[in-house]
Write a sequence for this structure.
């Protein structure tokens, strides 16, 4: 059964990103209940959309700061006892704060209220965005969102899995593709200034991801023309 709403968008490596503005917004109760409440539905679930994995692995919370520069990694789990391992999906919801996510070879600025379903075999890492990145000022958002150096993540795995560090950035398709990296410090999320983020990252808002530099430069040019610069 296909969902009657298109949830967020997919990037080339199979990762799905659903920002709150790209989610399904609906009343939590029937109109006749006369009870206030609004739902933000980030996923329709596997039954409604087969592209959504069934999740049966651990789930929990991770409070990120700028110090938690996660090493790049993937997740593997046995298909069945004795079988070779397969790549499993991880989903992360940023509840508050602004995150930086490395998904393959691209860094994304992830605003609050966003679900990221990381495609199988996609090397990834996370960290909190340094304080002071103003998404409204950059022309990304239509509301004031300023990073404060932390965010709260809700994580869940498709299957029980482990941490498999790697220096690889390309999407891996089979266990034989995986090359373990023992030097975890060398593959931690890089320290980035706000200017480096603005120049090199992509932002997520609504149902798209765009280039921060192009968007902010366009806003600057537009503002200059309006001011007669």
């Amino acid at each position: 059964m296909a969902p009657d709403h298109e949830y967020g968008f997919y990037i080339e490596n199979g990762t799905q990103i659903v920002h709150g503005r790209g989610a399904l917004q609906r009343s939590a109760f029937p109109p006749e209940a006369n009870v206030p409440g609004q739902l933000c539905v980030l996923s329709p679930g596997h039954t409604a959309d087969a592209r959504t994995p069934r999740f049966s692995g651990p789930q929990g919370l991770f409070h990120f700061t700028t110090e938690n520069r996660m090493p790049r990694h993937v997740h593997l789990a046995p298909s069945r006892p004795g079988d070779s391992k397969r790549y499993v999906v991880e989903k992360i919801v940023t509840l508050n704060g602004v995150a930086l996510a490395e998904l393959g070879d691209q860094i994304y600025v992830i605003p609050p209220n966003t679900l990221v379903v990381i495609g199988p075999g996609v090397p990834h890492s996370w960290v909190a965005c340094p304080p002071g990145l103003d998404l409204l000022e950059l022309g990304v958002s239509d509301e004031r969102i300023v990073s404060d150096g932390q965010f709260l993540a809700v994580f869940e795995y498709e299957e029980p899995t482990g941490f498999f560090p790697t220096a690889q950035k390309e999407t891996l398709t089979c266990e034989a593709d995986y090359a373990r990296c023992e030097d975890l410090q060398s593959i931690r999320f890089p320290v980035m200034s706000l200017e480096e983020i603005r120049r090199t990252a992509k932002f997520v808002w609504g149902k798209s991801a765009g280039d921060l530099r192009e968007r902010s430069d366009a806003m600057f040019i537009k503002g200059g023309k309006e001011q007669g610069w």
Summary: The domain at 54-227 is CATH 2.60.120.10 (Jelly Rolls). The chain has a mean pLDDT of 90. The first strand starts at residue 9 and ends at 10. The chain has one domain: 54-227.
